[in-house]
Design a protein that fits this description.
123 residues; alpha+beta; Gyrase A, domain 2; four-stranded antiparallel beta sheet; two-stranded antiparallel ribbon; 6 strands; globular
């Protein structure tokens, strides 16, 4: 994250992974993440690659509460996922939109989502 000065008074955060010249995470880094974080898969859409995990819950409220935690993580990092909430499920996809691929920040935030899931479910 880098700080940007706006209007001489306000400071906002800009996501480094969101810049067009951001570096794609290495194959080794992605492979290490996938092998040590169960449930995450590498997916491909027409023109971008991303990581995705589907979390399960006992009802909609738990899925919604988890989504709220993910929203806080996303806002803190200035980087936002695709997040789909259903009864008993929340699907999260992380990628860096400008580079249309996976950045180290995506892997780091995905790990934070796993930690939030464990805290919410007391696993």
């Amino acid at each position: 994250m880098t700080k940007l000065q706006e209007n001489d008074n306000e400071i906002s955060l800009k996501c480094e992974a969101c810049s067009p010249d951001a570096v794609v995470a290495s194959k080794e880094s992605i492979d290490a993440f996938i092998s040590s974080n169960s449930g995450w898969d590498i997916k491909r859409d027409d023109d971008y690659r991303y990581i995705e995990r589907i979390y399960t819950f006992k009802n909609f409220q738990f899925a919604f509460d988890f989504a709220a935690l993910v929203a806080k993580i996303a806002e803190t990092n200035g980087h936002h996922p695709r997040l789909i909430i259903e009864f008993g499920r929340a699907s999260i996809s992380w990628w860096s939109h400008k580079i249309r691929d996976i950045h180290e920040l995506d892997l780091s935030i995905a790990s934070e989502c796993d930690e939030a899931y464990v805290r919410l479910n007391n696993v």
